[in-house]
Amino acid sequence: MVVEYIRYRLPDERWADFEAAYGRAGAVLSQSPHCREYDLTRSVDEPGCYILRITWTSAEDHVTGFRTGPLFGPFLAEIKPYVDDIEEMRHYDETGVAGSGAAVPSLYDWAGGAGALQRLTETFYGLVREDDLVGPLFAHMDREHPHYVAMWLGEVFGGPDAYSRERGGYAHMLSQHLGRNLTESQRRRWVSLLLDAADLVDLPSDPEFRSALVAYLEWGTRLAVLNSQADAQPVTQAPVPRWGWGVAPPYEG
Fold first, then answer.
1. Which of the following CATH numbers is that of domain 2-93: 3.30.70.100, 3.40.640.10, 3.40.50.720, 3.30.450.40?
2. Model-level pTM?
3. Residue range 96-119: average pLDDT?
4. Where are the alpha helices (DSSP H) in the chain?
5. What percent of the chain lies above the pLDDT cut of 70?
6. Alpha-carbon dihedral of residues 157, 163, 169, 172, nearest 10 degrees?
7. pLDDT higher than 70, residue 101
8. Nearest C-alpha neighbor of 15 from the set 33, 40, 45
């Protein structure tokens, strides 16, 4: 891992727009497999001074992975008006000297890892097969399909990148939806059955985890419907999304 620090200095009339821009840019960062975490802080002593901290998988992944990939353009479009306000921009290696603050677990770990997601998808597709609305979509489903979807969810939720390494990543998942003309009714039933399966296999039911799960399902299924239409022009190359807790990290007492 390598940590990038960027120090900005802005006049007070630009603070609100700057923070809003990084809110949008952060949504792009969160989709990158090279970005592990990021935060933007503002100095208490000098309120016009901001520090952006981004943890990358490596400096090379940042420079030749992210900056040459499809996400850099949308990211730069948001923060470009503030490039001239940068005072310092450097990469730093971790030294191993750190405090003992509790780390926030990934959604993958909180859910119970690969085993829990495998139970989820096996139960879910059992419900799907018996459903009159979405069942026909999976009439000729590969017997390994539940396993592949568990791999996808595992990578999305912060686990191993097995789907990218073994199944072709985002491009392969996209190919499964092209030309299928999925409907809104089918999308809603898909989400409903998956949430039923989550209850049946006792996935964590705390509000924080379930809100993150539902947020991903809403985003992912709506995108699938859009990409499945005959006139769709989807983005064909992108990293597998990396979903996080959003505004509600796990409550641990």
1. 3.30.70.100
2. 0.63
3. 84
4. 15-29, 59-60, 72-79, 107-111, 113-129, 145-156, 162-167, 169-175, 184-200, 207-228
5. 97
6. -120
7. no
8. 40
